[in-house]
Input
Amino acid sequence: MTTAYFLILALLTVSWFLVGRQRASSIAGADPASLHSLPSYHGLFLAALICLPMILIFIVGAPLAERYIEARAFSGLDPATISDELGRSAVLRDIQSVLAGNYAGTATPELTTAASAYSSAASITSWLLLIAGIAAALVAAMFGFRLIGPEFRARNSVERLVKYILLACSAIAVLTTVGIVFSVVFETIQFFSKVNPIDFLFGLQWSPQTAIRADQVGSSGAFGIVPLVTGTLLITVIAIAVAGPLGLFAAIYMAEYASPRTRSIVKPILEILAGIPTVVLGFFAALTVAPFIRGSGESIGLSVSSESALAAGLVMGMMIIPFVSSLSDDVINAVPQSLRDGSYAMGATKSETIKKVILPAALPGIVSAFMLAISRAVGETMIVVMAAGLAANLTFNPLEAVTTFTVQIKTILVGDQEFDSAKTLSAFALGFVLFFFTLVLNFIALQIVKRYREQYD
Amino acid sequence: MNMLSEVDVEKKLYPAPDQPKAKMKGDNVSVFYGAKQALFGVSLDVPEKMVTALIGPSGCGKSTFLRCLNRMNDTISICRVTGNITLDNRDIYDPKIDVVQLRARIGMVFQKPNPFPKSIFENVAYGPRIHGLVKDKHHLDEIVEKSLQRAGLFTEVKDRLHESGTGLSGGQQQRLCIARAIAVSPEVILMDEPCSALDPIATAKVEELIDELRENYTIVIVTHSMQQAARVSQRTAMFHLGNIVEVGDTEMMFTSPTEKRTQDYITGRFG
Ligand SMILES: Nc1ncnc2c1ncn2[C@@H]1O[C@H](COP(=O)(O)OP(=O)(O)O)[C@@H](O)[C@H]1O
Ligand SMILES: [Mg+2]
Output
């Protein structure tokens, strides 16, 4: 029914666009300049008048309709079965499978009654919705149609409309973000009612398993994130130590030394690196790099675990090279040629020019390239899962297995969960800390860029 | 012996007006951008401690010739230069010449002011630093101050030496670029339409400065303004379509040009 609703909406919108345009040009007749606005603006105006009320009615009406349908379906049922959210959704699932004809087993008479109540309510409400939508649209359109005339400023109305549409889009983006943050904060607060925030932030042990029996050892779990912080930092630092210099030097080569032809070949190849699915890179890390590190470590007498932070960090570094190199290349290229000329004319060599003029001028962009790369590294999960393991060791030794925030979140939420257990909720708390982490990182980057700008621009 | 030195002294005091010492000489210079030829066997002498103006309609190769003089054309990969250019009678395209040192002896000021996005101080200190001309911090301060003074900018910026050079006005920026160029004590300064991005007052200041700098430096200036050429230069070369049409004393060129094309250009009939 929803499909039909929007199909009709689209049809009406297009046809009224044509009607409006036609009407305006026939009013104008032989003298198009007699209209204030071009005919197509009149068309767009009518189209908007049709489409907005219909969308609005759907947005308001659909949830109301759903409430009504559920109320009808539940009216004949035993109140005990629908006393809580879980029971209600189970009943709804049953009703839907009865209606679809694939209910496992034989339906009770109550269920059959509920199902038929459900389906009749559903068809009534969807017809109502459709009729209301079309009626509102037509009223609006008739009103708009009467406005069309030489004096009518359809162009300005459309302009205003465009502004509101754009505003709505950015509002949706912002509200979604706010919503996500709030839900994470809410769950985090719930988590902190079970686990002491001090223990969480400063605890040295992370083992979030829940007890199956109350007398089990470690039944309360240990929720100290310090090992995760060190693990995340260790891997990120290794990754940046690889990608920073390599990416930046590659960018300098591409921007300053390579011929345009070489650059046009090298740059896309580097960018392909960013397109490799991380699971493939993880594969590579676990099956090629990690054994290699282990082998070469043992040959010089070091004990290396088969899953190591070094392996994950190295491969992650490879992954983020293109973020550093491609963006840095762009910003280096954006440095005006006149600055290079100025430096060369002073008798500077190419590398002196790069070091003393070009890189300082491009610094804000390079910093943002690094920040982007770092946030990619912090947020990366797959490579770590495959190459660095799940063990929450508190260590700074890159040859040992470590784990990160993202890996723990994933591990906690995969599989069956009790929703309100400390273990599950800890995933939200981890997510919150991670979010805070990247926020601080971005803030610092912004400050660096701003400070630099103030000094030089 | 005695006689000779007297003659020398006389020569210095009263140089023969039509035979000044040539600091730089271009001989049969041709320049190609890829397959396109921009200069066709141009020959021009640049007299020492004078201002030589290059005039002519746009696209006639003035900038190209100027950029040959400090080998800035080397930075353009498709550009090829033939012919002979000397500085103090040494071929500057000789493979034994270090272009980096050459450019320290021949400074350049560009059409659009291009201070580095660094402080005023750092802008002027740039050249002395990369060429290792400074003994210590005190010496560097001295060089920076002296260069800014010579460029007539010191009193305007002395309280804000550590503020950004890009925050200055256009005219100040251009004088900063001149200070930057003279900080390495070049012998020749090349200027490519140095006033074309400036307002009349800033232009007047820069012109005044050029006139003062003539005392110590050999200057070659490209300009599209006839009045400017007449005001600041002693010699003028008229370019047209990659050739030099006429060279002579500025006064002569503007009062009685021998070539019809020069006359037309000066009076504004083409260009
Ligand atoms: N970098 C370049 N690449 C290709 N052609 C160029 C380049 N610079 C200048 N030219 C060409 O050389 C000719 C002379 O240019 P230019 O010396 O800049 O003239 P002017 O300074 O007298 O206006 C012009 O035809 C111009 O198109
Ligand atoms: Mg030019």
Summary: The first helix of chain A runs from residue 2 to 28. Chain A has 15 helices and two strands. Chain A has two domains: 2-152, 206-453. The pocket of magnesium ion (ligand 2) is lined by residues B 62-63, 192 (CB under 6 Å).
